Structures are given as structure tokens and as C-alpha cells.
Amino acid sequence: MRLAVEKLGWASGGKQIVSDVSFEVRAGESFGLIGPNGSGKSTLLRLLAGLLPRAQGQVIVDDVPLKRLTRREIAQRIALVEQIAETSEALRVRDVVELGRTPWLSALSPYGAQDLAIVDEALCAVDMLHMADNDWATLSGGERQRVHIARALAQRPKLLILDEPTNHLDIHHQLALLRLVSSLQVTVVMALHDLNQAMACDRLAVMDGGRMIACGKPAEVLTPERISGIFRVGARPLHDCADDSMIFRFHHLEEQN
Fold first, then answer.
1. How far apart are CA 71 and CA 92, in angstroms?
2. CATH of 1-77+157-223, one of 3.40.50.300, 3.40.47.10, 3.10.580.10, 1.20.1290.10
3. Residue limits of the ABC transporter domain (predicted)?
4. What does the DSSP assignment read for 67-127?
5. pTM for this model (two decimals)
6. Rg (CA), the chain
């Protein structure tokens, strides 16, 4: 799915939260959003999913303005996993993931064997099939995060939007999740706090004060100068000899080089 964002903005309580944001995401691309807390990343992701009223500008998916689509049509195209997603504690893990099939069900197309297979596949993808019958209330924060991602995968979206998907996950599941996301045949837009993890995206955009201030390939966008200006930390670029990738070592700005 191709995504085009044109002069997107949103205000609340007289305060502009996101201002005049424009960018494009190519089909199949992994597009990362980075920025300090309060920079507008989460609000921007909700705007991309069509969840906020009175948005300025427009979001276009495969040449169709999002505002022309019904909620059901949007849910068949776009899945959003937010940082804090509410789920009834009366449900089992499998019940939660089955909710991802809702946009595809109707009186003429009830839940069936194909939906069951899709749900099992989604649970396997996040290493939660063995806990499919567990009650939601018994899960840890990391396990709940993986189940919400499985629910999004069960939607079979063309655009997957993730807000800090590695939050609450141990390092094993962080790496497994990022590897899974990179293997999906979908367009991905995700907000990330870990700048080293963000380096694996195809392209990155930097948010600050509700505006997008840079967009491009990770090595072009994440310079030590920009990192110090936006995040107020020093960054030393290092190269991993194993795969010639670049990572950063961070330090307080007052530390001597």
C-alpha cells in the first residue's frame, strides 16, 4: 500500500499538536518515526489510521483519500497497535486475536476455518500460540503487547502502524518482533524510541514540536549533530564489523570526547 500525507495537522484545546506534516511511504517500505517525548509521533500515527476528528490536511492510501472510506474499509486496509491498548480482562488470548478478523466477517461470511488458521498463524508469529487459552488478566505487559500485535496481524492489513512496538518486551522478543516486521509483505510505519533499532528502517522521519523536520535514509537523517540538537545527548557512530552496519553510543553532552 502506498501512503501519501499532505499537510496533515491536528489541534486539541487550542493547542496545535501536529502541524503541516507531509511525506510519502512507498508500498512495502518500513518507515520509522523518531523524536523526543511529546513531539507528536503518537498523534500522527492515530491521524494516519483515521482515528482523530477534525484533522487538517489529508491521508491518501493507494490514491484514495482516507476520509472517503468507511471504518470497515479502513480496518480492512490499516491496523494500528497503540502503546496502551485496552482489552477486556474477561477474554482469552485467542479471543483477543480473533477480534482482528472482525472487519472481514459478516452474516454471509461468518468466522470459519480460514479465519482460525489466520489467527493461529498470527499467534505463532509472536510466539504466543502456546498461551492461546490463557486469560488476558494473567498476562505480563510484554505478553499483552505481543497479543495486540498478533491481533493486528490477524487483520491482514496492507498498512501496519505500530506505536513503540518494542515497549515492555525483553531483548529476545524485541529482536524477534523487529525481524518479523521486516519480513512482512506490508507497508509499515512505526514510532521507535531506540535510535539504533530505528537504523534498520528503510527510511526515517524526525518529529519535533509537532513538525517533521527531516526525512530520508537513516544514515542521512540520524547524524550526531541532529541527535544532539533534538535529543540533547551526544552520539558517537560506531561500525559493526560483522555486517558493516552503523550504531550509536550515547553520552551526556557534557562528557568529553
1. 25
2. 3.40.50.300
3. 3-234
4. GGS-HHHHHTTEEEE-SS----TTSBHHHHHHGGGGGG-BTTB-S-HHHHHHHHHHHHHTT
5. 0.93
6. 19
